[in-house]
Amino acid sequence: MRIAIFGMGGVGGYFGGRLAQAGYATVFVARGEHLAAIRAQGLQVDSDRGAFVARPQQATATPAEVGVVDVVIVATKAWQVEEAAAAMRPMVGPQTAVVPLLNGVEAPAQLVASLGAAPVLGGFCRVMSWISGPGQVTQRGVEPYVSFGELDGTPSARVTNLAAAFQAAGVTVEVPSDIQAAMWQKLVFIASLSGLGAVTRAPAGVLREHPALRQMLEAAMQEVCAVAAGRGHALASDAVAQGMALVDALRWEATASMQRDLMRGRPSELEAQNGAVVRLGAEVGISTPIHHFFYTSLLPAELKARGQLHYNL
Fold first, then answer.
1. Architecture (CATH level 2) of domain 181-305
2. Closest to 279 in 3D by CA, of 266, 268, 267, 288
3. 81, 121, 157, 170: which sits with the fewest CB atoms below 10 Å from its CB?
4. DSSP states of 138-186 as a string?
């Protein structure tokens, strides 16, 4: 199995590194100093589960050099998916599976619009990892986990084979019967944590321990559940409890990647997380006042990071 990792940030670096370490023929699509360092010395992964150096079969900034692969794992930021989909076309053949491992629920539709329906799976992951230097990725805390499946819920050999690859690489993997509902369940957790964390600039420990903040976090999760149901994806009755259990399991100092990006003045996944909850809720007549507050409060920082708004404090 030949597996291309499109996007070698914290997510792509960690999971791609594990697959390469397990002996799979991996292609790392990266750029700049990060790519140069990977080519020179391999990808250095500092993990709670043991440090290692991953050496891919190929590392490139040019997908057209790669040729058709069996699997493309999309590990970009959510706002980069449309551009990534166009760039990865030379790697996608009739039997290729394209698997998004990123936040939000809209990536499969964006990939389908560019690549057609046949290659696209649904998917997401849980991991706390980041680029710690050129050619270096650090992973801490959360048990790394991936989940994916066919968008229509049918079993398939390509899903089974990819799940076996992740298992062989030592990664916890799940193939749910309804991947789209599972993606919404992830959004319950991540959009609420990201939005509240970014507004307060506080870590997970503060958000879960302060009574008023914990109540707001739970209410934000309820809003996502309501939007999911309104769009035909009824979640489990304990969906909020599941989301809060994930928050309670985080390291006290943990922050979401969207929060970190906004705090550092970088473009973030605001549109794909809180913006999506507001927008997708409005389309089916569901009000989301807490996520609307998160979104509108954070929008100036997002626009400034993208060069669309200019101000100094």
1. Orthogonal Bundle (1.10)
2. 288
3. 157
4. EE-SSPPEEEEEETT----HHHHHHHHHHHHTT-EEE--S-HHHHHHHH
Report how far residue 313's alpha carbon sits from residue 301's, in angstroms, rounded to the nearest whole number.
Answer: 12
The answer to whether residues 208 and 150 touch, using CB atoms and an 8 Å cutoff, is: no
Nearest-CA neighbor of 141 among 48, 243, 13, 247?
A: 48
CATH 1.10.1040.10 domain residues, the chain: 181-305
- The rounded average pLDDT for each run of 10 residues, N- to C-terminus, in the chain (313 residues) is 97 98 98 97 96 97 96 96 97 98 97 98 96 96 94 97 98 97 98 98 98 98 98 96 97 95 97 98 98 98 97 88
Please give the model's pTM, rounded to 2 decimal places. Answer: 0.95
Strand ranges of the sheet holding 71-74, from the earlier edge strand across to the other edge: 58-60, 25-29, 2-6, 71-74, 97-100
